[in-house]
Amino acid sequence: MLVLLVKQKKSVQSKKLIVHYIQSDHPMNRPHVIVNCAMSADGKIALPTGKQLRISSDEDMKRVYELRHQCDAVLVGIGTILVDNPKLTVKDSYVQNPCQPLRVVLDAQGRTPSDAFVVNDAAETVIFTTNQHIKKVHVQRGQVHACPETTQGILDLHYVLSVLFERGIRTLLVEGGSTIIWSFFHEHLVDEFFLYIGSLIIGGDQTPTVAGGQGIVSQKDIIPLHLCNLQQLGTGVLLHYKSRSS
């Protein structure tokens, strides 16, 4: 009999996430990983400068905050922290009596500012960095964790997920940025993918897209997805994918 250490949440969607986690095919030593992102009709996720802009409709914003509320942790990379300074919390204007997820930051070089919202006491935070930079980062509630690097010089996502699993994290929401999203897809660590397409055009040759990083080399490296559902949400469209292996 499998017993999951998850916090009690009354949401029906939360129960679905837990059930899907139990039924998923990935080894039971890491959280169920959900990637969520919003992009323009031409596939951009930010301004050409890289700074965030709102793409989601009001209806999608409510969905995003409900999804945060339902997940045990929310993860972003240091680029998102430096450019957007997000709080990564759930607003009570969208969700009544919200459960604040654990905030997780991947910061290999220890660049998280001491006054960043993500390290305040509004919720717990775990920052993953390397041994040589661990003393450069501090949080008000939570901890800084040393993480090994891969041969490519990036933080080992498998190690990150194993540590989070040991902390009782069973559902992890990955929100960006584009390099982080690519890394999770490239390592085949994504179970579900929610993509909101807003009805606007941004343009720009260097404007960030959903998945950045190095990308694939050839046709055989394509990462296939299974489209489960699509629906109009406000002025845009929400696509729900699952990994072909989930």
Give a concise summary.
The chain has 246 residues and is an alpha/beta fold. 21% of the residues lie in helices and 23% in strands.
Describe the structure.
- The chain has 246 residues and is α/β, with parallel strands linked by helices.
- The protein has one domain (26-243): Dihydrofolate Reductase, subunit A, CATH 3.40.430.
- 21% of the residues lie in helices and 23% in strands.
- It has five helices and nine strands; from the N terminus they run αβαβαβββαβαβββ.
- The protein has helices at residues 12-23, 58-70, 78-84, 157-166, 178-186, and strands at residues 32-39, 73-77, 102-106, 125-129, 142-146, 171-176, 192-197, 225-233, 236-243.
- The chain has a nine-stranded mixed β-sheet.
- Strand 2, helix 3 and strand 3 (102-106) form a beta-alpha-beta unit.
- The longest helix has 13 residues, at 58-70.
- It starts with 11 loop residues before the first helix and ends with a strand.
- Mean pLDDT is 90; it is low at 1-16.
